[in-house]
Design brief:
The complex is a heterodimer of chains A (236) and B (265). By secondary structure, chain A is an alpha/beta fold. Helices cover 37% and strands 25% of the residues of chain A. Chain B has a two-stranded antiparallel sheet. Classes of the chains: A alpha/beta (236), B mainly alpha (265).
Chain lengths: 236, 265
């Protein structure tokens, strides 16, 4: 197994004809933490939805480990890639935190004892074990974000894909989330507008604009090129 | 990913699109009323009304197949008229078990009801696909529908798309975590009862969020001066020519109903 995520010449058009992705290619190795940045409408969320088959591959190829993302493999692929959505409320649809974190393991058919262990382990990784019986609905945004990450950690994924994890967080919650992401051992692709976090956490950055990858390289070099950042709407 | 596909309006620049909604909506209501008042078995009138409808559909620039496809969705409702096949007395055509009989007047009544439903549904589709929703609201206001009701319909339409978007995002999040264990001895998918429980949880969540959203919307309305009274700008005037054409059409509909009632009533 050479890469965790590999995307080859991926293109996608929405039913209304809008082309959201054009020949996107990149790969992410084991343990690598990569930032995905770009202006609004660049195609970041569309790309993310391809990584565990929520959107079907129209043109090109996507591989998770050795598995191509095709309808036959969706079950395995979804267990391997933990997708954390931008709005935690979308991710937390069960009555309690426990039910939400247990969803993935129960769906996989794990025995009840293992489900409980997985939930406990995932909640302790995000330091939220005492929240298990709480109603997700009543938590703060920062707490919801942590629980949303726990809902995918309980599936033991090999890669985490997060969409705007720090959006809407206060400085303390943001700091604690960054520390959490730093500690997690999984490979990571994080779509974000939070450039200070990118500088701090991700050695490598992929830049997208108008559905294309316009740069893929060392974060330090990319983010120090002011002209490039302005050109792609990343700083004003 | 947005739920734009729910909006039936198809923008074109046809004469039907350009007709003022304050005339189009009452005209469609009058057309549906005329159709429903034509007596059973008034075949020449059904043909005439269908011809009027097809002409309007052609004029709308959307093509007749567009309307036929959408009208087909209403076909199951025709089943509601099925009992009339067996409940009319008269010349027996077919005898069925359990003492059921299909009579000639029964068939005539069923075909008439089905035809009326089909014509009426198409008229409603014509209106919805050639009129932007805000203009339909304007027409409802012009028809003196209570302002509160118009506002409720408007808000419902506005937030229907938001809720559908939210549902789609929630279902994506569920699908994203619906994986298979690497251990093939575990059967994935969970039990039917558990899946029903999850779906129930999702519906409950949507309900709570909708209520909370309605609170926030209400606060946003209050903060901009809402005091329970809904106010609107005065409506612009309707072009003279459209007004006259509508008068002629309304009178024609009335005469058609009178004529049909005299000849078939």
């Amino acid at each position: 197994m050479s890469c965790v995520i590999e995307v080859k010449r991926l293109s996608y058009s929405y039913p209304d004809g809008h082309q959201a992705l054009r020949e996107v290619s990149f790969h992410i190795s084991h343990g690598e933490k990569v930032a995905l940045i770009g202006p609004n409408g660049a195609g970041k969320s569309t790309l993310i939805l391809h990584l565990n088959g929520i959107l079907p591959v129209q043109q090109g190829e996507v591989f998770i480990g050795d598995l191509p993302v095709i309808p036959k493999n969706l079950g395995r692929v979804r267990a391997m890639v933990g997708l954390v959505f931008q709005t935690p409320d979308d991710q937390l649809f069960s009555p309690t935190v426990f039910d939400d974190v247990a969803f993935g393991p129960i769906y996989q058919g794990l025995p009840p004892q293992e489900v409980k262990e997985r939930v406990h382990e995932a909640l302790s990784m995000v330091q939220m074990t005492e929240y298990a019986p709480r109603v997700s609905h009543h938590l703060s945004v920062g707490e919801k974000k942590r629980i949303a990450i726990a809902t995918v950690l309980s599936m033991n994924p090999i890669a985490l894909v997060l969409d705007e994890p720090t959006a809407g967080l206060d400085p303390r919650a943001r700091r604690s989330l960054i520390e959490l992401l730093r500690q997690l051992p999984q490979s990571m692709l994080v779509a974000t507008h939070d450039l200070p976090m990118v500088r701090e956490l991700f050695p490598r950055t992929i830049v997208m604009d108008q559905g294309q990858v316009v740069a893929d390289g060392a974060t330090e070099a990319l983010l120090s090129d002011q002209k490039f950042l302005i050109e792609h709407g990343l700083v004003s | 990913m947005h739920a734009h596909f729910l909006d039936p309006y198809k923008p074109r620049s046809s004469p039907i699109h350009q007709l003022d909604a304050r005339l189009k909506v009452p005209l469609v209501i009058a057309f549906i009323l005329t159709t429903s008042l034509i007596p059973i078995g008034g075949w020449p009138f059904y043909i005439f009304l269908t011809a009027v409808l097809l002409s309007a559909e052609i004029l709308s620039d959307l093509g007749i197949p567009f309307f036929f496809k959408r009208a087909a969705l209403a076909l199951p409702f025709v089943l509601a008229a099925l009992p009339v096949l067996f409940t009319q007395t008269g010349n027996v055509w077919v005898t069925l078990p359990f003492g059921l009989t299909i009579t000639a007047p029964g068939v005539e009544r069923f075909i008439s009801v089905a035809l009326k439903a089909w014509i009426s549904v198409q008229a409603a589709i014509l209106m919805a696909s050639t009129t932007p929703f805000p203009e339909i609201l304007l027409a409802l206001r012009a028809l003196r529908l209570p302002k509160v009701l118009v506002s409720i319909i408007g808000l419902m339409w506005r937030y229907l798309f938001v809720i559908v978007d939210e549902t789609i995002r929630m279902m994506n999040a569920r699908n994203a975590r619906s994986g298979e264990s690497p251990n093939p001895s575990y059967k994935h998918g969970g039990s039917v009862f558990w899946r029903a429980k999850v779906t129930g949880g999702m519906a409950g969540n949507l309900f709570i969020r909708s209520i909370e959203r309605s609170d926030r919307i209400y606060h946003a309305m209050l903060s901009r001066g809402y005091d329970g009274e809904i106010r609107h700008l005065p409506l612009p005037s309707i072009p003279e020519i459209q007004r006259w054409i509508s008068v002629v059409v309304f009178v024609s509909f009335f005469l058609i109903v009178v004529l049909a009632r005299v000849l078939w009533g």
